[in-house]
Amino acid sequence: MTNERINEPMLELFIFETTQLVEQLEQILITTEKNASFTTEQINEIFRIMHTIKGSSAMMLFNNIAALAHALEDLFFFLREEKPQGVNFSEIIDLVFNGLDFINVELLKLTNGDEVDGEASRLIEQLHGYLLSLKGDQLVQENLQSESDSFIPQQFYISKSKQSGIEGQFENAFQATIYFEENCGMENLRAFGVVNELEGQLEEFYHLPQNIEDDESIPEILTEGFRLFIKTNHSDEEVRDLLQQTMFLKELTLKGIDDLETAFCPFRNELTPTELRGGNSLNSLMTLDQAERDPTKGKPAASAQNHQSIINVSVAKLDKLMDLVGEMVIAEAMVTQNPDLKGLDLQNFQKAARQLNKITTELQDIVMSVRMVPLAGTFQKMNRTVRDMCKKLNKEVSLKLIGEETEVDKNIIEHIADPLMHLIRNSIDHGIEEPHIREAKGKSRSGTIVLEAKNAGSDVLVSIRDDGQGFNKEKILAKAFKHNLLPPNFEELSNKEIYQLIFLPGFSTNESVTEFSGRGVGMDVVSSNISAVGGSVTADSIPEEGATITLKIPLTLAIIDGMTVKVGNARYTIPTISVKESFKPKLSDIIVDPDQREMLMVRGHCYPVLRLHQFYRVKTEIIELIKGMIVMVEQEGKTLCLFVDELVGQQQVVVKALPTYIKTLKEIPGLAGCTLLGDGSISLILDIPGLISY
Amino acid sequence: MNILIAEDDMPSRKFLSKFLSQYGDVDMVVDGLEALDAYLISIKENNSYDLICLDIMMPKVDGVRVLKAIRDYEAKRGVPQDKRVKVIMTTALEGTDFVKNSFELGCEAYAAKPIDTQKLLEVLEKLGLLEFPSQ
User: Fold this and answer.
1) Segments forming the whole domain that contains residue A545
2) B133 confidence band (pLDDT: 50, 70, 90)
3) Quick one: pLDDT at residue B5?
4) Which of B95, B103, B115 sits opposite A158 (nearest CB)?
5) Residue A3: is its pLDDT beyond 70?
6) Interface probe, candidates B83, B85, B96, chain A, greatest A C-beta count within 10 A
7) Between A223 and B134, the higher pLDDT residue
C-alpha cells in the first residue's frame, strides 16, 4: 500500500487501524468457525472491534462503513446479551465475512485516493433480516435496539476536499491562442512576458509549449501559436482585454472550453502539486513487536500506558537506518584498515579499533533484528485463503501452521505473501482431491496442507506440503512437450528436474482453468518473485501421497559475509556461504578436454574451472592456473572452481544494487550487486547461482 | 445561529464567512486573543455563539489554547456538556497529534484545509446546528 495520493495522517491512521482490526477479526472468525461456537470472550472481542470501527469511521464521516459496522455490532450485541441457542454459525460467519470484504474494498478505495462510495445497504438489510429472524425465534425485549442506537459520535474529522472541488469554483475556462508579429524575434521571451503579465491577474492558467525558458520553443510558438489554457472567474471580455495588451500581438483567438477534463489533462501533473504539498508518500507502517494481537491495541489513544512498549515505525525510516549502519560498517573498515597505518605498531589504536568493531557489529545485529518480523501474520492470512477455496471448490482441507514464529526481514515478507498464496491455492486446486475421491483412495476425507517455516543457517525454509495426489510426471512431461518447454535431453531428466518444469513460464497442468489457479502464470510468478529476493523454489512429490514445495529464502538481503578476491585491478566479493574451499592448484590436477575446457581434479572429483579474468575480460598478469588461486564455490549441489589472482580478505559487506544506468545499458551475467571496500574501492558481488548456471 | 470565525489568513476567512453566512450571523476575528475577547463579550451580552471556527496557527494565542481556555471557562461556570459551544478546528495542520490533542481538549470537529464544504455541512447537521437541514 504505497500510494503518494494519501498524505493525510488522519486518513493513514484510520486505514492502518481499521486494516489491523479487520485482520484481527478474521483471525477470530476462522478459529470460531473451526470450533463451531463463539465463546463469550470472542463475542465481546468482535463486538469491541465492530464498535471501534464504527466509531472511527463515523468520526471520519465514512457513513457507509459506519452503518455496516453498526449493523454487525447489533448482531453481536444480540448474541452477547441473549445467548441464543441453535444458531447457524457458518451463516453468521459468512455474513460477517461479507461485511469485512466490503470494508476492505472501501479501505482500498481510500488507499487509492478515491471516495468511499460503496453501497452497503444491501448487506445491512441482510444483517437486519437475519437479526430479525433470530429475534423472531426468541421474542426479545425492545431495549436491545435502543442501547446500541444511543451511540452518536461527538467528534468529527473533516478530511481535506479533493482538488476537483476547487476546480469547480472557477466560472469560466478559456483557450487562447496568440500569434506574435513576424520577425519580432525572441518569441519565447514575448510569451514569457505574457505569462508574467497574467500572473496575479488570472486565477489559474497553463501554457503550451510548457517550457518557454529556452529558444527551442520558438518554432512551436511560430507555427502553432502560443496557447494558453485559463481558468478564471473573469468574463470573456476581461480576459480578452488583458491579452490585447500583449506587445507585438498579431492575432488573438479566445474561445471557451467546455470539456475541462480533456483540455486540462496534459497539465494534470501540475494541477496536483498543491495536493501533494504534504509530500510524504504513505509509508507502510510496520509493527515492531509480536504483540500485534495484543487485544488492547485496537483502542486508539484509549490506553496510553499499554502503548509504551510498542511503537510503530515507518519502514522507510528503518531502511534509512539500515543504510546508515551499512555506511558506518564501511567507514569503520576505512579507518581500521587504513593504508596509512600499514607497518605501524599501534597497540592503543588496535585496542580502540577492536572496541569500535565490536560496537558496530552489535549495532548491525540490532538493526537487523528490528527489521525482523515473524511470519505469523503472513501465515495466518492463508487461513482465509484456504477457507474461501474450500467453499468454492467443495473440498475439505485443513491448514496446519508450523514454525510461524520464524522471523525474516520485513522486505522479504512482503515478497513472499503472494507466492505463498499462489502455492496454497495451487495445492488445493490441483493437489487435494475431492472428498469422495479421497475416500475411494482410502485417504481421510479432508486433506491437510502443512505450512512450515524453519531456520537453516542464513536461510529460511518455507515448505508447503499437501497430502493430495502429487505431481503426475507423465502429465507434466506431456504438457511441457506441448508448450515446447522441454530441454533437448528430456529423457535424462531426474524426477526433481521434471517437477521443476512447472515453474517455467506458460505452464499449467490443470485441464480446466478455474477461478483460482490454472492460468499458467501462478507458478512462474512464484519462482520469479522468490528469486527476486535471492531465494529459490524446489518441488518434490510422491505420487498419491502428496507434493512438497520448498521456498528457500535468505534471512536478510542487506549485509552479507563476503570473501574479497582480486583479478587484475578489479575486486570481486564472493558470498562466504557459497565458498567451499580455496587453494593453489597443482599442475598435475589440471585436465583440459578436447574442447579446450579446463577442469580440476580434486580428491577424485572433476570440477569445471571458470577463469574470472576471461569471463569479465579483465587484464591481468596471472593467466596460468598454477600461479593464481582457485576458489571453489557450491550452490545447490553444483560446484564450480573460480580462478582468481589472489585472495584479499574476508569482511562483511553491505550489498548495494547495481545502479540502474548500468543495468539498463547492459545485462551483465553473474553479478548480484556491488559494495564499497574499506579502502573506498568498489567490489562487485558475484551471484554464484547465476555463474554456475551460466 | 451565531458564528465566530477566528482565522488570520484573509482568503480562508473570507471563504469561510461567505460559506457560513448562509446559515447564520458571522463574526470574524484575526487572532486568538480577539477570539477570546469576542467570546467573552458575547457571553456578557447574553448573545453567545453557537459555533466557533478556530484556526490553529494564529498570531498571539493559537487556536488550541483558545479552545482550552473556552472549555476551562465553561467548566468553571458549570455549563453542561450538551450546552457547550460547538467548536470546529479549521487548519492546514493535519498531524494526528494535533487532531488527537484537539479532540482531547474537546472540540467537536477537526477540518483539514482545504475545507470540504459538503462534509462541513454534514457535520453541522449532525451537530444539530442547522435549522433547516440541507437537502
Assistant:
1) 373-510+517-554
2) very low
3) 92
4) B115
5) no
6) B96
7) A223
Indicate whether B48 belongs to any domain: yes
pLDDT per position as a tens digit, A314-353 = 778 887 888 888 788 878 878 887 888 888 888 899 899 8
Measured in degrees and rounded to the nearest 5, phi and psi for residue B113 equal -80, 150
A519 Cβ partners below 8 Å, 6+ apart?
A508, A513
Are A538 and A389 in the same domain? yes
Most confident of A220-229, A330-339, A444-453, A534-543: A444-453
B67–chain A nearest CA distance, Å: 14
pLDDT digits (tens, 9 = 90+) for B103-126: 888 888 888 888 888 888 888 888
Q: Taking the CB of residue A439, how many other CB atoms lie within 10 A of it?
A: 12
- Give the C-alpha distances (Å, rounded to integers) separating A304 from A290, A300, A301, A641: 18, 9, 6, 60
**Does a structural domain hold residue B133?**
no
Nearest Cβ partner of B113 from A13, A61, A160?
A160
Q: Which domain holds residue B108?
A: 2-127
Read off φ and ψ for residue A463, nearest 5 degrees: -120, 145
Give the torsion through C-alpha atoms of A123, A129, A130, A136, to 10 deg.
170
For an interface test with B, the pick among A158, A159, A161 (most B C-beta atoms closer than 10 Å) comes out as: A158
Tens of pLDDT, residue by residue over A413-432, are 877 888 888 888 888 888 88
Same domain? For A409 and A458 the reply is: yes
Q: How many domains does chain A have?
A: 4
Kindly state whether residue A345 falls inside one of the protein's structural domains.
Answer: no
CB A468 within 8 A of CB A450: no
Q: Does B52 touch chain A (CB under 8 A)?
A: no
Nearest CA in chain B to A274: B114
A–B interface: beta-carbon pairs under 8 A: 67
**Closest Cβ opposite residue A165 in set B100, B116, B127:** B116
pLDDT in tens, A238-250: 777 777 777 777 7
Half-sphere exposure (Cβ direction) of B36: Cα atoms closer than 13 Å: 19
Domain count, chain B: 1
Distance from CA of A229 to the nearest CA of B (A): 24
* Nearest residue in chain A measured CA to CA from B128: A154
pTM of the model: 0.51
d(C-alpha B31, C-alpha A597), whole Å = 85
Select from A154, A155, A161 the Cβ nearest to the Cβ of B116.
Answer: A161
What CATH code is carried by the domain that includes residue B84? 3.40.50.2300
Say if B102 falls within a structural domain: yes
